[in-house]
Every structure is written in C-alpha cells, then in structure tokens.
Design goal:
heterodimer; A: six-stranded antiparallel β-sheet; B: alpha+beta; 4 helices; 7 strands; about 40% helix; YdbS-like_PH (chain A); transmembrane helix (chain A); UCP026631 (chain A); YdbS-like PH domain-containing protein (chain A); membrane (chain A)
Chain lengths: ~550, ~200
C-alpha cells in the first residue's frame, strides 16, 4: 500500500500532524455525509413533506384523512415489510458510505500529495509538491457546523486541484502548514538563515511525530477526541466559528488589511450592476407610466428580487476579508458563513491588476485582482477561490497588498511608480516627472479619452502598464512569470504610426495589453520585455520550489 | 547601452531599470533611425522563412473554403430563392480571390528566429504580429500534418506555453526541419527552464 519513497527530504521542522509521513490516511468519518450534505437535506425535506400531515396529526391529534402512504401501509398490514425495506435501504446507504469512506484515502510525503477514491470508478490524483500553486482551506457552512474543513492543493491547469474533503478543522489547519513546509523544503534547505522561527513547534502542542510503525492500518482522522462531552464540542465549534481564519502567530499583524463593513457594502452597491439595475428600474417605471400592460412587471420583478440575493452573497462572501503575509506566501481569507482561506506561495502570481471603476473614484477605492496558473474559474465547485485579492481598499491598502504579493517591490521609487500608475497621467506631469513611457498624442484618434494615461514602464523585475481613464487600470506583470510578448499592428494603426503590445500571461481576469503605443517604442518594448523575461527568470528567487539543476526531463506533462 | 534611443516624447522609460535588467545582451542599441510606419524588427537578425511550398497548402485551403461556402450559398440561392445568399457567395468569392493573389507574399512574411534566449516569430503583412517567447516557458511542442501538407512533405510546429495566447505556431516547415527544430527547441528549453 505504501511504497517506499525514494528521497524524502530531511524533516525541517517537527510536523504538526502525523499525516505527512507518506502512509495512506483516511479522511473525516463524516465525509460522505458532508459531501452529500445538500442531498441529505433534500431527502429529509422530501420525507418531511410527505409525512407532513402525519406529523400534524401526531401533534394536534385530529383523526386521519386517509391517503397517507403510511396509513395505506398500515391498513394493508404490510408494516413489517415496510420496516424491513427501510432498514434495508438504511443499511445499504450506510454500507456505501462506509465503503466510500474506506476507499477514500490520501497520503502526503516530501514530494507528492495523492488521493485515491471511488468504489466502482476508482480515481487517483497525484500532485507534485514542487508544483503547488496554492493551498486553499475552505469551510462551507454545513461542514463548518460540524467542525470539518476541506483542504485543496491546487496545481496549474483548469481543473488542477487535489481535494482532501473533509478533514477535522484543526487538523486541516495543521496539515496545510505541513504541506506548505514540505513544499518549501528546498528553499529552507538551501538558505536556512532565511527561515523565520515560526517553524518551531509551539510548546504544549502535540507536535511529536507519530510512530510510523503501524502502517497496516491507516490512521483514522476524526474530530479531536478531547471534545467528548457535548458542551465541549459546542464550545469548540463556536470558537472555531468565531475565530478569524488567520493564524495569528504566522502573520505579521501590521500587514493585514481590514475592510470596514461600510466600505464593503458601499463598494458592492456602487458597482456596475447597480447602474444596470437602476437603468432597468427606470425603464420599468417609464414603461408602466407609458401604459404598457403588466407583463413587463411580471417578467422583471423576479430578476429584481434575485438581485438582492446577489448583493447579499457578494457582501457575505467578502465580509471578514483578510490578507496577510506568512512565511509560506500570502494568505487570503474571506467569507462570513462559508469561509475560505487561500495560501499563495511566493512567485505564483502571474499578473496583477489594480483597478478603479468610475463610481469608486470619489471615494478613492481600488480593487486588486490577479492571474494565477490555477484558475478554478467557471467550475461549479463550491470553493469561492477568488482571483480578487483585495475587494475594495484605499490607496494605502493597495500599497500594502502590493508589497505582499510583489516582494522586493517596496522602495520609494516603486511606490512612486505605482501611485503614478494609479493616479497620474501624461497631462499632469507639468512639474512632476512621469515615470511612464506614454502613447503619443496622435493616439487620440483611437483612444480619445485615455490616450494620455496609456503608458508602460519597467522597474526591477516588474512590468507596469497604465491605462484607462474612466475605469483606471494599472497592471503589473512579474517578468519572471511572463510567458511571452507580442506586438502587432493593423492598417489603422499603421496609418497613425502606432502599434499595440500584449504581455502574454496565463489566462485569467487580467489581460496585460497596451492598445496604443508608438511604433518604434513597440519594438523597444518587445526587446526590453523579452530580455527582462529571460533575465528575471534566471535570477528568480521567489520561485523557491523550482529545481533548476535536478529537474527530471519530464516537461509539460507534470504541470 | 543604457541610453538607447527613445522618441523624445517619452524621456522617462529607462529611468527605473536597475543594472540587472539592462538589455545589454542585444547587440544593437538603436531603434530604426528613420521613421517608418511599419512595425519592423529587421535588426533582430536573419529571419528564417517557411517552405515556399506552403503556398500550395494555403491556396488549397482557401479554394476548398471558397468552394464550400459558395456552393452552399448558390444552393440557397437557386433552390430556396434567397437572393442575399448570392451576395454572400459573391463576397466570399471576391475575398478568396484577393487572398489567393496575396498568398505568396503572406507566406513569405511568415518567419521565425532562434535568438539567444527566446524564439521570435512574425506573421502577416496587413495585420502584422511579432511574438517573442522565451525558451524556458515551453510546455510542449506539437507537430501536426494536414493532408495537403503531408503530401508536400510539410509539417506545422506549435510551441505551446502556459498562456493560451502565447503559443507560437510555425506552419509549413519541411518535415525534417520541423523535427530538428523541435529537438533544438526542447534542448534549449531544458537548459533554460523556468518554473510556472
């Protein structure tokens, strides 16, 4: 079952859990129940709906009306059979649950995370730890009530994640930490001075590695057995529910951005969706006044009501947002009812966009979204894996977050560059130096409003693109992660001696493109970007997990 | 090399580039001396073109396309009496003929260049496009052959990166060239691979 692993790196810190020993382990016993949570609720709802009258009778004590399935069974004297069938179904469900739980095992060692599951259709998923793009810890509402959490190890690709669902809440926390430590093992081995002391086990924690002897029987992971009494259990749940998701000891508190609820609600209300909604409402009123029939109202009202739900979900999803730097990368947590916390190891961010819709300008609010190689976009998975790492924040918040996600991009020059990119423009630079190389004035034909803000710059290992005047945008691309550069020119741009340029990154919400740029400058940009991409990839130290020398010649397939 | 020529409207480009990023490796410091409207990278080096036989593949493709569309349009026109279909058919025919006339030039405009650390690719006359992809970003290389290309002994090579849009696809290489180019690119990528 547990084949020996060729080279397990020496343990760097005492692991908090005994799950990373390379043996097969099982998940939380309630996993099948939690996975089918909604389904179970539906079944219970169905039963209740069918037995409603029966229950009312039971409590109120009126006589039967007949037609109830239970009465029918009772009257035909088939009670025994019915009970037998119910018992049989229950046993089958239990057996299936038990078997699916038994066959759902996972293991973690120094190199891989592997999950096996399935009764009839077996599936096996393996992720290399040196390819980890992020570790997400999600607690959907229903499992959260039971103190369970889902751990997702994402790797590059559309559907590239390994799910450990579900684990005990505390265990999931610890396992995340262990996995991240294992993933960063190479870095720690290479430069031990760099690792802060947070790796040391906290005293009093049961951090001693478990004996690896009993490999025959995988250890069962349940809820912490200490909470045997119901009261203890409830208290523990309550504490987990209430406690912020961030590990207080692992995050330097000063780098945490907090969003006041008022600002959050304001930002959600002042979105493009609201404008659309207002227009729809105005249209509706006009049409009603103009004397159209009521069907318009009937058609539109459900949508209006649904939009309230949209606002609500937006707010609850981003409420209690937090972002902090840990020793293993940036940790982003959000969610009120269903919480989720993502950990992005350093160097996993491919593009960053700082944007400001026009409605937010008055308040000075900004949003930051990113591209990562593991965008779980479009999937109906319940994880709110988000590409937005700052839902709404002030200028200072943006600076803090950028410092987190772009290590080494924090000198005064860089700050000036970012601020200039967010607020500045060519027209303003009468006295102040504008650090950007801007589009020429003839770009006004193609970009009548935003030409004076369209520009680019390179600083350190980061390329910056400034654009947009109604909705301001600043795009930062770490050159070490950039996949390529493209410059192109069509007939219209040729007449104007313009061109357009794209910095090609992995797919995501951010597209780093510069639609107008001087022809000669486009050539310069191509040269600078391509050289910079190669150079910063060579000098890249943020990508600690990549093995530059000992990479086995398996390209592409392992991604 | 720090002071390469930037148009004077944009005096501030090189200000904030530390030494490490100076593109000192590239041999030529200046952009094109006289203003030209076209996007051009002539100073980059000797472009390698694709096989001239690739014109045949393009021509066959265009003709097949035109025949299918025009056939469908004329069916609609003659059998169902739809006059607009006739205009669509004529339009497609005219575009196809124009395409056929420019086909040789378009094929000549396709080129690639193996530079020190990246692959440079260019395509198009009216809509020009230059792509530079560092070798280290390679994820895989695809070689495909269509029926006509196979008959002519040609193959298409596709250099795939993690970005969906950053793939470089070089059509119409001689089969032997495509395979040696693939091996060369894989070798280059191995020595320069970067993490994702």
């Amino acid at each position: 079952m547990s084949e020996p692993v060729a080279s397990v790196p020496a343990p760097l810190a005492v692991p908090r859990t005994d799950l990373t020993d390379g043996e097969w382990h099982r998940l939380h016993p309630a996993t099948p129940l939690l996975r089918g949570g909604i389904f179970m609720v539906a079944i219970i709802g169905f039963i209740f709906a069918n037995l409603r009258e029966r229950l009312i009778d039971l409590f109120i004590g009126q006589e039967n009306h007949g037609g109830d399935p239970i009465d029918e069974i009772y009257q035909r004297g088939a009670t025994g059979w019915a009970l037998l069938i119910i018992a049989g179904v229950l046993i089958v469900i239990l057996v299936v649950f038990y078997l699916s739980w038994r066959t759902h095992t996972f293991r973690v060692n120094g190199e891989i995370v592997e999950v096996r599951s399935g009764l009839i259709f077996r599936s096996n998923r393996k992720a290399r730890l040196d390819r980890v793009q992020g570790v997400n810890l999600a607690r959907p509402l229903f499992p959260r009530l039971f103190g369970a959490a889902r751990l997702e190890i994402t790797v590059a690709g559309q559907d590239g994640n390994v799910q450990l669902a579900y684990l005990g809440s505390k265990l999931a926390d610890d396992l995340r930490r262990d996995i991240l430590h294992l993933a960063s093992g190479l870095r720690q081995a290479r430069q031990p001075a760099d690792t802060p002391d947070v790796l040391a086990p906290t005293p009093g924690d049961d951090a001693a590695p478990a004996p690896l002897g009993d490999s025959a029987a995988p250890t069962i992971i349940g809820p912490p057995t200490a909470h045997s009494a119901l009261g203890d259990f409830a208290t523990a749940r309550y504490n987990e529910f209430r406690a912020p998701d961030l590990d207080p000891e692992a995050a330097p508190p000063e780098s945490v951005v907090r969003i006041p609820p008022g600002r959050l609600i304001g930002s959600v209300v002042l979105s493009g969706f609201t404008v659309f909604l207002l227009l729809a409402a105005i249209g509706l009123i006009v049409s009603v006044i103009a004397g159209s029939s009521g069907w318009v109202l009937v058609a539109v009202l459900p949508g209006l009501i649904g939009s309230v739900g949209y606002y609500f979900s937006r707010v609850t999803k981003t409420l209690r947002f937090s972002i902090a730097g840990t020793s293993d990368g940036v940790r982003i947590g959000f969610g009120l009812l269903s919480t989720s916390s993502q950990t992005l190891p350093p160097g996993r961010i491919h593009a960053i966009e700082v944007s400001q819709p026009i409605l937010w300008r008055r308040f000075g609010w900004w949003q930051i979204s990113i591209n990562t190689a593991s965008q779980a976009s479009g999937r109906s998975s319940t994880t709110p894996t988000s590409s937005i790492i700052l839902p709404v924040g002030s200028l200072a918040d943006v600076a803090k977050v950028l410092e987190l996600v772009l290590p080494g991009f924090e000198t005064d020059t860089h700050r000036a560059l970012v601020e200039n990119g967010m607020l500045g423009g060519r027209r303003r630079d009468a006295g102040v130096a504008d650090f950007y190389s801007n589009a020429p004035a003839r770009a006004v034909w193609l970009r009548p409003f935003s030409w004076w803000r369209t520009g680019w710059a390179v600083s350190g290992n980061v390329a910056l693109i400034r654009r947009g005047v109604l909705a301001r945008d600043l795009i930062l691309v770490p050159l070490a992660r950039m996949q390529g550069v493209r410059i192109s020119q069509g007939p219209v741009r040729r007449r104007l001696r313009l061109a357009s340029a794209d910095l090609l990154t992995v797919a995501g919400p951010v597209t780093a493109s510069l639609r107008v740029i001087d022809v000669d400058e486009a050539v310069v940009l191509l040269k600078w970007m391509s050289t910079g991409a190669v150079r910063s990839a060579l000098a890249d130290t943020s990508h600690q997990w990549s093995r530059t020398e000992a990479t086995p010649p398996t390209k592409g397939a392992t991604e | 090399m720090p002071d390469r020529e930037v148009p004077e409207r944009n005096p501030a480009v090189p200000k904030h580039v530390p030494e490490s990023l100076e593109p000192s490796a590239s041999p030529e410091p200046s952009a094109s001396p006289e203003p030209s409207e076209r996007l051009d990278l002539t100073e980059a080096g000797e472009w390698k073109g694709v096989s001239p036989k690739y014109v045949v593949v393009e021509i066959v493709g265009t003709i097949v396309n035109a025949v299918v569309v025009c056939g469908g349009a004329s069916l609609l026109w003659l059998l169902l009496d739809q006059t607009w279909a006739m205009w669509v058919g004529i339009l497609v025919l005219v575009i196809s003929i124009i395409n056929l006339v420019f086909e040789p030039r378009r094929v000549r405009a396709i080129g690639y260049l193996l530079r020190g650390d990246d692959l440079l690719f260019r395509r198009g006359i009216l809509f020009q496009r230059f792509v530079a992809v560092p070798y280290g970003r390679m994820q895989l290389i695809d070689i495909t052959r269509g029926p006509v290309a196979r008959w002519l002994g040609l193959a298409d090579l596709k250099f795939v990166t993690a970005a969906a849009t950053a793939g470089v696809s070089i059509p119409g290489l001689a089969e032997g060239d495509a395979e040696s180019l693939r091996d060369r690119l894989v070798e280059l990528a191995e020595s320069r691979r970067a993490g994702l």
